[in-house]
Amino acid sequence: MNIRMTANVARILRVFVDEPEAQHHGAELLKRLRISSGSLYPVLARLTTAGLLTVETEEASPSELGRPARRLYTIDPDSLGAVRVALAEFSSQVTPTSTELGRAWGRKPGTAMGGA
Predict the structure, then answer these.
(1) Which residues contact 3 (CB under 8 A, 6 or more apart)?
(2) What is the 8-class DSSP label of residue 96?
(3) Which backbone phi and psi does 63 adopt, to 5 degrees?
(4) Cβ contacts of residue 58 below 8 Å, gap of 6+?
(5) Residue of 10, 12, 1 whose CA lies nearest to 74
(6) Global pTM exceeds 0.85
(7) Is 53 helix (H, G, I), strand (E, B) or coil?
(8) Exposure on the CB side of residue 19, measured as CA atoms within 13 A
(9) SS3 breakdown of the chain: % helix, strand, coil, rounded to 5?
(10) Per-position pLDDT tens, the chain of length 116
(11) 92, 12, 6: which is closest to 52 by C-alpha?
């Protein structure tokens, strides 16, 4: 996979991995992920350029829809496995272990996290 994984990239890709056959449009992703359009749309463009997502435009005319036609994004089926692996690797790098959490809270290794 030739894309730099960041927290926003991972969050966006997770939506597509969790629903690999679904089409998603920008407005839905903005609402669902609660991120800005300035964060979402550049990532969608990079993921599309990298071949991880496919995009098509709604076929109905804007006058029929009463709004501009949406761009509908889907994860590329051939990329799904690589994306899952990349997300798992990213998650393991950013998810602290209980020992790391304990150190962050000033606890010695081997002591209970929630107890007295």
Answers:
(1) 9, 46, 47, 50, 52
(2) -
(3) -70, -35
(4) 65, 69, 70, 71, 72
(5) 12
(6) no
(7) strand
(8) 9
(9) 55, 10, 35
(10) 788 999 999 999 999 999 999 999 999 999 999 999 999 999 999 999 999 999 999 888 888 888 888 999 999 999 999 999 999 998 888 765 555 555 555 656 555 555 54
(11) 12
Looking at the DSSP assignment, which residues form a beta bridge with residue 53?
75
3 state SS of 54: strand
Partnered with residue 79 across adjacent β-strands are none
Which token pair is 81? 């496995």
Here the tokens at position 1 are: 């996979």
Residue where the block lists tokens 């994004």:
73
> What are the distances in angstroms from CA 62 to CA 68, 72, 74, 75, 78?
5, 15, 21, 25, 32
| Token couple for 29 | 């992703």
